[in-house]
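Note to self: user wants both folds in one dump. Writing first protein now.
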Amino acid sequence: MKTTLKRRDWLRGAAVGALGVAEGASTAALAADSKADKPKAPFIATPLDLTVKKIESTWVNVPFRPVAARNMIRELPHWTVFVIYKVTLACGVTGFGETMQYYTWRTVSDEAISRVMHHNAADFLWDDTVGAGLQQALFDAVGKANGVPVHRLLGHKVRERPFISWWAIDMPAEDWVLECKDAVAAGFTAFKTKARPWFDLMDQCEKLMPTLPGYMKVNFDFNGTLMDSAHAGRYCVEIEKYPQVAIYETPIPQSDVAGNKQLRSQTRVPIAMHYGSPPIMTALHEDVCDGFVIGGGADRVKAEAAVAATADKPFFLELVGTGITATFSLHFGSVLTHARWPQVDCHRIYTHQMIKPEIKVENGTAQVPDAPGLGVELDEEAVERFRIQPTAKPYPAPGLLLAIRWPSGSTSYYAHAEQYWDDVRNGRLPVFPRHVYLERIADNGTREWKELQARAQKGGFMVSGRPM
């Protein structure tokens, strides 16, 4: 039997063959449509063009808040330097992200930019090698182009309001009190800070804890400076008498499997360790910690979170930056079942969050945005205000003279933090003695100060007494 093909049907079939069938449409549906008597609009497949057409970068120097500034200058003055990336797709949508320029893996290379340009943005969402700022911008752009929030690209939302923590570096107890006062006023219920052998943590707790509301929890990150389980056991048990102490992070080097197992059996405070050291199967088999710290690129975070969930281990996300990175982290925190500990992103150490609207914390949680992409706007006014030319890493800060005052009466002098960190790592300093403290010696213009500072630039040294 001979079939006569109408010109309209032939054109429709040709269009489908050339462009493909739109998502969700079936061949049967198309056939039924061709037989309908009622005129139909022509079928046209118009796939969204996610090709990356332009990548722009802007360097900014985002100031620290005052308390953070006077303490970060010793060790992390370079944490103010960011690069804001904007990605424009062929469909006209623009996404943005940030890289903390001098923070390990986050840097975006020229090679990564060349690799992404003129390719489909979706192909690089899970490529951690492109760098933090570019990866965030790609997620933002693809989410906006498809009209979905980033958390829809990451997984299934399990919580509307992820947990979030205030962060501060090691500092005198008086400054911790000021930081926690601001944290409580801003709606935070968790405070993560650094425990260090150049500040007596027992003295600090005696001053800090009475100022905190009962619901405020504190996470002390030792970064391995308690050195071994022999030193750590008694010390951790002494500190845990304060009910606000919620987590000990990396009290001793994570590679010490036996020592961490022993320490965990001695303290009631949960111990958190950075995922990956010791190797994850060893960590789980030996049960060396109560939970993990997870950070890195999107693919790494998702993979490590899946393992932690399988092992039923809680964790907190640690993605460091301004409100831009904090928002990206909130999207992850909303879809990862075991992100039960408050995320650490450090965005409150800065004067500006670099986004609109800013993140608002209530009862220790923050709402994950549901608008397309990151769900927030870049604060263009702040970007222009803090714009700088590309700069070298601003470390060490010039003109510093730092003194560690030992209870014996001796003083160790340094020009920057890496010097005393080197002494700690190599066992040249006492481990958390009582009544030790660190202070910055202001330049008073005297010959004595200049001589001490010049000597400290060549390396840390110890003297008897307290000459300055």
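First done. Writing the second protein, which came from a different request thread.
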Amino acid sequence: MKKAFTLIELLVVIAIVAILAAILFPVFAQAKAAAKKTADLSNCKQLGTGMYLYLGDNDDAFMSAYTYIGDSSSNGYENWSYKLYPYVKSWDLFVSPGSPNGGWPPAQFLGNNLGFGYPAPMKPGTRQDNQAPRLSYTANLLILPRKRSSKDVNINSVNAGQLDAVSDTILLAPLTDDANCLVTSSSAYKSYRTGSAIARQGQVPFEGDDTYPAFEAMTKASTDATFFGPQGCAQSKGYNDVNKSSVRFIAPKRFGNGNNFVFADDHAKFMPFERTLDPERFAWGKSAYSFAGSPIYKPGTTTNVN
């Protein structure tokens, strides 16, 4: 006679399976996150190498972060990712495996965005701007300037030879994963915008399109207010004086407490976001290269960052 499991035996087996699942599922999740972080680092490295090749063909001059086609905003824009594409030959490299939305489409795109689709709340527009169809990375505006047209006479292009400590200066960073942080005064979702962790003196938010005689490194309190505060872009859909800092275009912590960054010498590495703000080792630039080399001071001082 075949003996069946008793109810107690069955419950014990179920309990053991549940315990094993509780132990193993977090391990699997951690392994998956680590794999995404590693794949993202590979993307960053290849984008850095592509930029190095681009510089070789362009007299060591970095491209503008974006420019108006035909010198007019009505014609759309051309983003740095579009100019870099011939050197990496894959749109997939512009999408981070850690990006929850699969990367943002251009601010203006047609139909199904060249077959790459689009996440909410984006909607098709009236043209296809020249940008990677899905984008998870943004540029440091102190190196890739926001020189949109000939009217931006006070914003200059940057040559690689101008940079200090290239191995410690961020070139590309993760683009925000929060749609609210892409919103500007025009209420558009501008995935082509660039950021940097600098403020006007007194921690006054710097939007990235004006020139000033001097800047200062942002503090953790200022960046936290921009991202997470009651009026920060991750909490508020409104565009206001707190969240208008250009740092809002950067994802502060895509992987745990930090991100993979591409540096100006083309290497890539992981760094906690707070570490990039350290005025003794400020990672966004020793001076504002795209703003005529204006100084960047330590917060509340007139001493240059290191």
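Dump finished. Worth passing along: The longest strand covers residues 258-263.
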